[in-house]
Every structure is written in C-alpha cells, then in structure tokens.
Amino acid sequence: MLTDQHDRRISYLRLAVTDRCNLRCTYCMPEKMQFLGRASLLTFEEISRLVRLLAAEGIERVRITGGEPFLRKDLLSLLEIIAAHCEVAVTTNGVLTAPFVPALRKMGVKKVNLSLDTLHAERFQRITRRDGFAAVMNTLQTLLEHEMEVKINMVVMNGVNTDELHAFTELTRQNLLSVRFIEEMPFNGQGNGFSGIEWHYRRILSHIGEKFELQKRQDAPGSTALSYRIPGHAGNIGVIPAFSRTFCGTCNRLRVTPTGGVKTCLYGHDAMNVRDLMRDGFSDGSLISAIRSAIAGKHADGFSAERANARKMLESMSAIGG
What we know:
Elements: E1 12-16, H1 44-56, E2 61-65, H2 75-83, E3 87-92, H3 101-106, E4 111-115, H4 121-128, H5 133-145, E5 149-156, H6 165-174, E6 178-183, H7 201-209, E7 215-216, E8 226-229, E9 236-240, E10 253-256, E11 261-263, E12 272-273, H8 274-279, H9 284-296, H10 302-307, H11 317-320
Parallel strand pairs: 1-2, 1-10, 2-3, 3-4, 4-5, 5-6, 6-9
Antiparallel strand pairs: 7-8, 8-9, 10-11, 11-12
C-alpha cells in the first residue's frame, strides 16, 4: 500500500487530464491563459499505465479533473480504461457535459461534481467571463434525470455570491444531491483578486444555520467536507475548509497534474514528474518506487506544505488540477 511518513494510507487519486478550460473563472485563472501544447500533456497510454500501476498499489478511487475534462477528445475511452481498475468520478463545469451523461451512466461512472458558483445567469457571466449558464443548468437537470450522484461545488467568494448561500441550500429540499460550499483559495494564477478568508467554514455554517436546521452527518474516512443534513430535505450540504485546512490529518489523496507533476498536497510544489520518468524509459518498478518516495515525504498538513513551497501559490488551479 502507498503510505506516507505519517502513516496515512493513500487510496485516492485526483488526476487532471487537461489544463484547458472553456470558462475563465476569476478565482481559478487569469482571463488570458497560455495553455499547454499537446506534447506537454500526459498521453492516453501514459495515463492508462499510471492508473494501472497505482491501482495495484492500493489506489481505489480516481477523480478526473482539469481544466475541463470534457475538452479532452479521448476522455470517454480513458474513463473506460480507468473504470476497469478503480471507482471513477468526474469533476466538470457542465458546459459540455449533458450529451455525455448517458454514456457515463452506461459505463458505471455515476459520481459527478458540478462546479457552479451562482444561480443567476448575469452573475455567472461575470464570474466565469463566459456565457454558459443555460448549458450548465441543463447538465444539472440531465444528471438528476439519470439518477447520477451529484455534488454541486460552490466556491464562496466575499462580496460576490455570499447572498446565494440560502438559495443553494434550498436546492437540496427537493433534489437528491449534495451542495458543498468551498472556502476560496489563492489559486487564481495572477497573485491578486483573492478575497481572503472572511467567509471561512464556520461563518458559512453560521449563515446557513440562520435559516436551516443543520444536523451533523457522519463524514466518510478521509473526507474533506463537513457534512450536514436538513430535516425534510432530500439532499444534504457540506462545507469544505479548503483554506482553513482542518481535514489534513486524515488526507488520503494524491494529485497528478496534466503534465505529470505529482503533488502530495494541493498547497505544495510538485514532488516529482511521472511523465518525464516514463518518457525517460523508467520500468514499472522504478516508476512506482519513485512515487512511493514522493509520498513518503508528504507534509503533515497544508500549512507546512505551503511554507515549503517556493512558488508562493500563484499557479492557476487549472494548471494544478481542480
């Protein structure tokens, strides 16, 4: 099994398959992005090999992220390969997703996280710098109609969308879905425009609790979210202390960026690069040995990882892997 120096078993991989995105969310990336060339990205064969090896080492779940994963032309074929080894889930912005939902359901990919930060079309355009609100809402409806396990990810931004916390919570009344409110993080790729942590997870919960009765649910092992049910609601809510980093002690995650960078912590630097090692001819055994060594050096929490990161966290989230 893959285990770090703090005796945490690593069983969950977040795999970014592209840095490209069809939105330009203000908290995620600059308005003008220079995306990578195709040769810089992990190939189909490299991703397939990596997942096969990691599954044999105890990785049980893989979440596909981007950028926007549905911009990658071979995504469905990749999902089929990965699903043969692990449980697969997808995080998407929903603009292109709706037509693919039946195929996802058929191949057994039932868990989809939908990034959605507002329920107003005009505000959506301001946040994303694009006009895609109708397409995203169509994807949400399509996911629910196909009985997918849907989680809406809402990044809570001071002075931008905090007036919608109650409206998002209301979505769980009739719909069997989860809404997760995420603390904003400093990953917009431009070093400015970050609203800080005025809306930390305690304030978010307090605000929602002014209108709704929140009852704590049992959180899954390794969960980043604090989960709550509301009496009479079909769905539930969760709050992710992404900036406060209260969940680090049970972290079971490994990240791989679109270019093969291995991150043992979102707030840390790349510990190694699997793309480069594979292209240098490393054997399966040597590759896994290098990954084990990287995981062994995993920091105790996001704060120590951030202190050790010389790049000072100015990367775009799309380059890291959402």
